[in-house]
Amino acid sequence: MAGKGIRNLSEAMRALSLGAPQTCRTTLPVRTASSICTRSMATEAPLPNITRSVTDAWQPLATVPVTIYSFPSLEPRSLESWSTKHLHLPLRRDILHLAVIYEGDKTRQGTASSKTRYEVHGSHRKLYRQKGTGRARRGDKQSPLLRGGGKSFGPKPRDFSTKLNRKVYDLAWRTALSYRYRRGELIVTEDGLELPLPDDFLQLAESGVLGTELEDGFVRKYVRQIMTGLEWGKPNGRTTFITGDHRPNLFTGMEVAGEEGRALELEDVDVKDLLETGRIVIERSALKEMIKEHQSDLVSKVMVNGTRQKGPSLGQVIV
Amino acid sequence: MRRIPRIPSVASALSSSSTASAPARSAAACLLKRDIATRSPRTTQLRSQTCAHSQRRYLSVSSRSLSTAQQVDTDVARVLEEEAAVLQAGAQIPSREIQTDLVYPRGVVEAPRSTDVTDPEYTPAETAEGLEEVGGLANWWEDPEHWSASKEYVGFGPQEKVTDPAVLEVLTRRAVVEGLIYTRYAEKGCKNPLREIGGREEMERALKVEVDVAEDGTATLKKSFKPVWADLNRPTPEGKPVTAEISPADAQQLAKSWDPKWKTISLRDPVTKFAVAKRIQRLTGHVVPDGKLFGINTAAGLVAQLIKPPKPKKLAEEIATKSELVSLPNVRVFPRRVTPVDKEKMVGRWKIIVQELEKRELPVVGTGNYGKAVEKKWILGKA
């Protein structure tokens, strides 16, 4: 904002109330005198009404609703309530970053390899005598200084994987899901998520009259239509489908129409996948399994007084 | 990528033994028989070659059961014998028609390879000029004549989202009323839960239902809501669903006639909220995501959410629509970077530059065949 500065010394003195002796009462209207110092409030967000009485207890949100849709019509079929500790965690970019880096490190192949001077094939005979040739002294042909020689400090196969505490990694999974949920980019579908290809096409494909090119062309267009209708396609940032196991038509369809999105089996998913593409479409059982596998910070294996911490329930059906 | 193997070729089906049940076996044999009967002698040969190597990539539930049932030994052998007899006789048997409204190329004939041609006068062409164009099925389905309307995507909501604020308000009221009615009767079970749109009559009936709203937002339905429940329960008629459309002017008038207190109706009850959201999706095409929905607790909040225009994707779009920058005389907003070419165009010099460059046979944009300036690497200290 312009005009925040102080124009001259006298104004500065006045602002500090160091000028001529004035009573408090007279110094107060200084604000109006230096109106250029006041800031337009246009950019300031209104404060939420956060004041609460001591008498009414603070009851944080415990559950959030999750609508279960059918695919591809996207008809809401039922409603479930999930714990906020599963699907409404605060965004922690640092934890997501840790998880993505951890996964990246773990996935590195680490197979780069080069030969040292001791591994390069050939004779280790001295190239020529030490003195008297007028040339630089040389050892064997494998010297790193020579072309075709070994590599001094070259790469060797190694494991790049780093460590991350299990509880932090699990929190990252649920943070990623929560981030998607809050942005409206987590769509949970009924079990058995599959691409419903039309019957007549399947019969044609079965009888083999179309051939691969026509079959794939059909599926590409069919998928594109669905994705455009749902606003899930390429212009809307693609879509990741996550299913419990391999679904032939969905997986082949998404492979054929890869520009519209991709399909992953639950076991192939990691945190980075959850953060990529415009939205995540996951079937209910896969979501349940995913959260069940990644709640080590909420559940405990240790029995205390005959009971153990089991964590919040995994989705309760409301409607 | 793992692939599902295509139906095993007849040869492999012969070799594999199976424990398929008797009815499945006979059905499979019957189907296979028909399948074989459709082929003309020439295509049979071709297909048996291609089938063995290619893979089946798309599956249906019925076809899956078929493929397992097809691994039948004795029946297949019998069918094969019959096929051989048919081929020898050269009989023309009407092909089995698959009921489809798709148009696909039929009677594809493969040209022999140049090495297989025995005609001594045959000389392979050396250029493509003057040759007949064949193949090119990549864009086959892009032709609307090949595609069919039955393959179009049909979602739960209307194809076009409703965007007019007044219409949205009216439809929200309808959805809220129907949601409240649904909640009231939900325990009894709904035959066709919240799918029915109905026509003009149904809409008017729903909008006429009066609602009393208490201070805390609790809504009490007044009489005449039972017919609305009946409307909601009616099964969807065959064919295209009836849609009730209301003009923005009518909607505005209607919205004004209501007591604005209806907007304070509480939507805290999750069942009501679910029903209302589902109705909203069916009537307007707006999908209110869960993350937004749980923060919406009144009808007014829902209306506000629906009316809110989608966030512009580009900063330039946002500035162009609502910023005061546009009205300033010394500010201009461009949707992309202003390039040197754009600047020349603005002052009307670009055409002349192009003419002059062309006259000298110099590239108009870029460096053409000349490559980068040789001196560049000296200046940058790279050489």
UniProtKB/TrEMBL annotation, chain A:
Keywords, in A-Z order: Ribonucleoprotein, Ribosomal protein
Family that this chain belongs to: Belongs to the universal ribosomal protein uL4 family.
Region (Disordered), start-end ranges: 112-159
Family annotation (Pfam families): Ribosomal_L4
Organism: Diplogelasinospora grovesii
Record-level GO BP terms: translation
InterPro entries assigned: Ribosomal_uL4 (IPR002136), Ribosomal_uL4-like (IPR013005), Ribosomal_uL4_dom_sf (IPR023574)
GO molecular function: structural constituent of ribosome
Record protein name field: Large ribosomal subunit protein uL4m
Segments of skewed composition (Basic residues): 123-138
One GO CC term on file: ribonucleoprotein complex
TrEMBL record, chain B:
GO CC terms, sorted: mitochondrion; ribonucleoprotein complex; ribosome
Name the UniProt record assigns to this protein: Large ribosomal subunit protein mL50
InterPro entries: Ribosomal_m50
UniProt subcellular location: Mitochondrion
UniProt KW keywords: Mitochondrion, Ribonucleoprotein, Ribosomal protein
Family: Belongs to the mitochondrion-specific ribosomal protein mL50 family.
Keyword Mitochondrion applies: yes
